[in-house]
Amino acid sequence: MARMHSRKKGKSGSIKPLKKVKPTWIRYSDTEVESLVVKLSKVGNNSTKIGLILRDTYGVPDVKLVTQKKISQILENNKLTPEYPDDFTSLIKKEITLLKHADKNKKDQVAKRGLKLTSSKIHRLAKYYKRKGILPEDWKYDREKAKLIVS
What we know:
Blueprint: H1 30-43, H2 47-56, H3 63-67, H4 71-77, H5 86-104, H6 109-132, H7 143-150
Helix pairs in contact: 1-2, 5-6, 5-7
């Protein structure tokens, strides 16, 4: 599949293993992994960061192989889901940093183009989340409100 904004084909950088069975060398049970996910979420990590911490620190390659649930499902069962999805907040953070850069560097046309592309991705993702019912139908994106969402 082609990239969205670059007119190139490109391939993904990593591929998940084909085996769908729990590796024998994992020393954590499914309840232990679930409790680790809950503990890491209460500290303030998002689901992406929880997966990285579990992989790098605890040696759990894939939470779904161990627990048969995704990290987001575990957080949902324990009522720890964030108000906005992780991909949405990361795009908002990216737009805020690009705005700060564009204010300092007025003639940086590449940064201005990146800001336009990022804002269009945010609007497209917001439209999708409104359709799915994650965001309310009357929700509007505002850059000032976005700074409050991220902080």
